[in-house]
Amino acid sequence: MATKKKVKKTKSKSSMARKAVKKVQTQVRRTAKKVVKRAVKQAVSAANKALRPAGYKIVPMAGKKLVGEISHFFDKISVGVVEVKDAIRAGDKISIEGPQTNFTQTVASMQIEHDKIDTAKKGQSVGMKMAQPVRRKDLVYRLTT
Fold first, then answer.
1. pTM above 0.70, yes or no
2. What is the percent of the chain with per-residue pLDDT over 90, rounded to a whole number?
3. Is residue 136 a contact partner of residue 72, using CB atoms and an 8 Å limit?
4. Which of 8, 16, 85, 107 has its CA 20 to 30 A from that of 23?
5. How far apart are CA 138 and CA 88, in angstroms?
6. Phi (first) and psi of residue 80, to 5 degrees
7. Which CATH number is associated with domain 64-143?
8. For the chain, how far is it from start to end, CA to CA, in angstroms?
9. CA angle, 103 then 104 then 109, to 5°
10. Which of 115, 103, 108, 101 minimizes the C-alpha distance to 143?
11. Which of 92, 116, 115, 96 is CA-nearest to residue 104?
12. What does the alpha-carbon distance between residue 82 and residue 40 come to, in Å, rounded to a whole number?
């Protein structure tokens, strides 16, 4: 009568290698973030030293929070449709950013179906007058001080 041998299952070398690669990638990402932050800080500091005699100063961008995304732009009337992801109020200072767009403006007024509103809530689509042309998928941030 033949006896059966028990086969011990082991992890394959390829799965162990994948885990090691993933761990190294995570460490590289973390280190890269730190290096970029340090480089930006040094660049701002150097620019401020160069501008000090003229009386100018570079101030890093204030904190910002994502509040929406542009879904459409009507170029003749310069109105953008914003899909709201967090509350926006009339008077808020916003920044619209995208691959070809980068400007700030104050929210003068917003409309839903031609009705003027003061506050837009999460999930609503609002029309907003834009200072410059915007494009679909541009992100809208509320600037905080």
1. no
2. 40
3. yes
4. 8
5. 16
6. -105, 145
7. 2.40.30.10
8. 82
9. 125
10. 103
11. 96
12. 31
Between CA 127 and CA 142 the distance in angstroms is: 16
Query: What tokens does 65 get?
Result: 């929070």
Contact yes or no for 96/130 (Cβ under 8 A): yes
Token readout for 12 is 């394959």
What share of residues in the chain are helix, strand, coil (percent, to 5)?
30, 30, 40
Report the alpha-carbon distance of residue 91 to residue 56 in Å, rounded.
Answer: 27
- Cα atoms in the 13 Å half-sphere on the side-chain side of 74: 10
Q: Measuring CA to CA, how many Å separate 32 from each of 39, 59, 64?
A: 10, 23, 22
**Number of CB atoms found within 10 A of residue 18's CB:** 11
